[in-house]
TrEMBL record:
Residues 720-747 form a coiled coil. InterPro entries: P-loop_NTPase, Sig_transdc_resp-reg_C-effctor, TPR-like_helical_dom_sf, TPR_MalT, Tscrpt_reg_LuxR_C, WH-like_DNA-bd_sf, WHD_MalT. Keywords: Coiled coil, DNA-binding, Transcription, Transcription regulation. Residues 840-905 form the HTH luxR-type domain. The lineage of its organism: Bacteria, Pseudomonadati, Pseudomonadota, Gammaproteobacteria, Pseudomonadales. It comes from Pseudomonas spirodelae. It comes from the Bacteria. It holds the Pfam family TPR_MalT. The keyword Hydrolase does not apply. This is LuxR C-terminal-related transcriptional regulator.
Length: 908
């Protein structure tokens, strides 16, 4: 589908969209061109079939005939182009959409990226195409090749699209061939293709009808001419297919042979001009009026035509035009949508018409159908930017802030004049928020300055309202810039004076203040702000804002180390979105899904985490939401822990590329990506490289003049300290590493950041154990288990993999907790022993008398509660004994323990 429908999030009916890849049928009484089709067939061994000739020489009809007679193994994709496709982005979106039925899912990420570009920014089409071509190379099957038809390329042709398709053509993968029809030769460098016989060209001379073909066409049309008139007509027409058809239509209405002779023997331009006028003028008056009134539309249906003409007979007139073959081209299988033959519409449009009123009527019709993109375009074509402004203003700030799908508004911005953006305070604020959410901070601030031209306002209430909104937006911009003091001041003041109906902006201020509270280590204040935001969202009953509040609460809970509660919070947020349309893209759903993946990675569930992260990245990218950064960085860390370092760096490279394309200021992403790279470099033993960049990060985010941590990593300064300690430990600077880790653990604990405290404590635990300080290591492990009681398993990752048996022994000596049980499940299973016999005896001796008693009752099928009652021990103690039995026998479940015990002779 075209970008107009896809980026607006509106769902058009199938009959609206079906025409974009619909191959029209051959004209009635078409004269077949088998010789030309045979030549085209020979060109399928190359890359490009180029059919270029002036209007009306049957280029499209030949392409249709050729597609209908392709060899059995060939598929074809038809793209009929228009002037709207001159934007390479729009063209490539259509191309990717057309490829989906042949190769489902191809270019999915590329398509999302393309939809988020902004026309005023440069876009690396060649780089984008390179990735797409690589994907196509893997998906194309040379045994079932595809013919890509670009019909009427001249309508879209331009320097940028020419360069784009030149690159596409130069790197065309096997199994894909292009057929291009155009009135003018594309500006491509084709010499190399000619020399390598990869190009077949057909020109005007090739397409001219021979005398026999022209005679056959006229005969099929039912025209009767004298030999003299026929000779003159063949001479004047010069094999021009459209001219002969037009003449035949006009002649069919003529009543006297003298008229036919006059038509056939007319002067220069007769076929092109006079016959066209004869076709139009010979139609009934109401049909003529219909033609002129609808000519301005690129496509139309009966309902739209009725709205344009303020009439109810458009369907009947369309049937008349179809019956009389008056250059009506169908755009769908249902015969619902049409366009005029380009040559015919050119002639219709050449006569001056009062088009402003027609465009405004079309605007109203499209608006009524919910197709705001088309409505805005019609308003602009009518020269009515104020009408376009009113359409844009139908989107409230609250709706924008709730959905945070700024891609839609930014795409509209491309089609609107810049002067429109500053025409009303509402538009300034609307686009200011869109730009701020898109992290276009300079543009947002420049737009916000324009608000001053509307001050002082007409009354004090309006003035206070504008100032309050200015404060809210300025506060969010200041948070993006890392200016904590301004952000704190502006957001706090905005909350004190924003009216209640501006709940969306109030929620943005609460979210920014909560984020700053995490940066400053005040997690209790962040928690209070989260609670206030959730209560506000629940009062207004907006599920999107409720979901955003749950997302913010999950981030605070995660910072505090309460990973399981954070997971519950994320899932509650997603549950609030269950009743929203699945087909729509929502930034908050993308964020929640990403964060669920992040939390699952903290629970050491890599596959589930990866699945959620990829899904979240896809939705966030479609919404142009910077939260994709979390997804890529967590994916990189996951791959790093798995040893897939090249894949990890590839994720970071993609994140950085995306930030460049979206023109995101480096303050948002550079530190976060760099810190993740340092983590990977340390795993890769590139210690010096990590040291250099960790020092630079420390200079920026440490000390008295430290910059505020970025929004998506508010605890970044503490993690810099953590990685510095890792570097020092790897360099053998154990004392320095120990001091840093102890300080970091205490600092994180004091701030309520229990997860980070646990990570520092476990790093120190490993150091102490390796240094022979066993007792201290055991004590510190106990502290780490308390810090991580909220469910975070990541702090134990290195010890789980490097010292599993030591950790198993320590955990089995402790009372059971959900965290200890989860860690034991992540430990490698004790290897089952089948020989020699002395090892079996050792296993038998390993079970205590109490464990033996519990095992016997388990074998009898007793529940834990029944075992507790029979042995007069607590239920907790029963569970602990059962866990120890499973671990010692190297099994996971009760039934396995019984079977294993019987094989060892422990049970009879």
């Amino acid at each position: 589908m075209t970008d107009l429908y896809s980026i607006s999030g509106l769902v058009a009916a199938p009959n609206v969209l079906g025409g974009h890849f619909y191959r029209p049928p051959l004209p009635v009484r078409y004269v077949a061109r088998p010789a030309l089709c045979e030549r085209l067939l020979g060109g399928l061994a190359g890359r490009l079939l180029l059919v270029s000739a002036p209007a009306g020489f049957g280029k499209s009809s030949l392409a249709i005939e050729f597609c209908e007679h392709l060899p059995e193994q060939w598929q074809s994709l038809w793209l009929g182009l228009s002037s709207r496709d001159s934007d390479p982005g729009r063209f490539l979106e259509r191309l990717l959409s057309g490829l989906q039925p042949f190769y489902p899912g191809v270019g999915k990420d590329a398509l999302g990226l393309l939809r988020l570009r902004q026309r005023h920014q440069p876009f690396a089409f060649e780089e984008w195409l390179d990735g797409l071509l690589d994907e196509l190379t893997l998906r194309l099957d040379p045994q079932q090749p595809l013919l890509l038809v670009l019909d009427d390329y001249h309508l879209a042709q331009g320097p940028v699209l020419d360069r784009c398709l030149q690159f596409f053509l130069n790197h065309l993968p096997p199994g894909l061939v292009m057929l291009v029809t155009s009135r003018q030769r594309p500006d491509w460098h084709l010499s190399r293709l000619r020399l390598s016989r990869q190009l077949l060209e057909l020109h005007e001379q090739d397409l001219r009808l021979s005398d026999s073909e022209s005679t056959e066409l006229l005969a099929l049309q039912g025209s009767e001419l004298s030999a003299e008139a026929l000779a003159v007509l063949l001479l004047r027409s010069e094999g021009w297919v459209a001219g002969l058809r037009l003449w035949s239509l006009a002649a069919s209405e003529a009543q006297a042979s003298g008229v036919l002779s006059t038509l056939a023997q007319g002067g220069d331009g007769l076929i092109h001009d006079y016959l066209l006028e004869e076709v139009i003028e010979r139609q009934p008056a109401e049909v003529q009026a219909f033609l002129y009134e609808t000519a301005s539309q690129e496509r139309f249906c009966a309902e739209l035509c009725d709205a344009l003409r303020d009439a109810h007979d458009s369907a009947a007139i369309l049937r008349h035009l179809q019956a009389h073959q008056v250059f009506l081209v169908p755009l769908d299988e249902q015969g619902k949508w049409f366009r005029y033959h380009h040559l015919f519409s050119d002639l219709l449009r050449s006569r001056p018409q009062p088009s402003t009123g027609l465009h405004l009527r079309a605007c109203r019709w499209f608006s009524g159908q919910g197709l705001l993109d088309e409505a805005i375009e019609q308003a602009l074509r009518a020269g009515q930017p104020d009408v376009a402004a009113n359409l844009v203003q139908n989107l409230s700030e609250e709706q924008l802030l709730a959905e945070q799908n700024v891609a839609t508004l930014l795409r509209w911005k491309m089609d609107l004049p810049d002067s429109l953006l500053t025409s009303t305070p509402r538009l300034i604020l609307l686009y200011g928020w869109a730009l701020a959410l898109a992290c276009q901070l300079d543009a947002a601030e420049e737009l916000l300055v324009q608000l001053g031209s509307f001050l002082p306002a007409r009354d004090s209430a309006e003035q206070e309202g504008l100032l309050a909104q200015w404060l809210a937006l300025s506060g969010v911009i200041a948070r993006g810039r890392g200016d904590s003091a301004k952000a704190q001041a502006y957001c706090s003041e905005a909350l004190s004076c924003l009216p209640l109906e501006r709940y969306g902006q109030r929620l943005m201020c609460l979210s920014s203040l909560a984020n700053l509270a995490i940066v400053h280590g005040d997690l209790w204040r962040a928690r209070g702000l989260n609670r206030e935001a959730l209560e506000l969202a629940q009062r207004v009953g907006n599920p999107l804002f409720e979901a955003l509040a749950h997302y913010d609460r999950a981030r605070v809970l995660q910072a505090r180390g309460e990973v399981l509660r954070a997971l519950d919070e994320v899932r509650m947020g997603l549950q609030r979105l269950d009743n929203l349309p699945v087909r729509r893209q929502y930034a908050v759903r993308g964020r929640l899904t990403l964060y669920e993946g992040h939390l699952l990675s903290l629970r050491l569930q890599p596959e589930q985490a990866r699945q959620k992260l990829l899904a979240g990245i896809a939705e966030a990218r479609n919404c142009r939401d910077i939260s994709v950064l979390i997804g890529y960085c967590v994916l990189a860390s996951l791959e790093g822990r798995s040893g897939n370092l090249s894949e990890a760096f590839a994720h970071l490279a993609e994140a950085e590329r995306l930030m460049h394309i979206w023109d995101i200021p480096p303050i948002y992403y550079l530190a976060m990506i760099t810190l993740t790279k340092c983590e990977l470099w340390l795993r890769q033993d590139q210690h010096e490289l990590a040291s250099v960049w960790l020092s630079r990060l420390l200079d920026t985010y440490g000390g008295e003049q430290a910059a505020a941590a970025p929004e998506f990593h508010p605890q970044l300064p503490l993690y810099i300290q953590l990685h510095l300690a890792t570097y020092e430990r790897l360099q053998g600077e154990k004392e320095q590493a120990e001091r840093r880790l102890r300080g970091l653990s205490q600092l994180a604990h004091n701030a309520g950041g229990q997860l980070l405290a646990a990570i520092a404590q476990m790093q120190l635990t490993a150091m102490l154990r390796d240094g022979g300080r066993e007792r201290e290591a055991q004590q510190l492990l106990g502290s780490a288990l308390q810090s991580a009681a909220g469910g975070g398993l990541l702090p134990f990752f290195d010890v789980l993999s490097q010292h599993p048996e030591w950790l198993r022994g320590q955990l089995l000596a402790l009372d059971a907790t959900p965290l200890i049980d989860a860690l034991l499940q992540h430990l490698p299973r004790t290897k089952q022993v089948t020989a020699p016999e002395e090892d079996d005896a050792a296993l038998v001796d390993a079970l205590s008398a109490r464990e033996q008693g519990v095992l016997e009752l388990i074998a009898q099928g007793c529940s834990n509660q029944q075992i507790s009652e029979r042995l007069f021990i607590s239920l907790h103690t029963v569970k602990t004994h059962a866990r120890h039995i499973n671990s010692k026998l190297g099994v996971e479940r009760r039934t396995q323990a019984v079977a294993r015990a019987k094989s060892l002779g422990l049970l009879h």
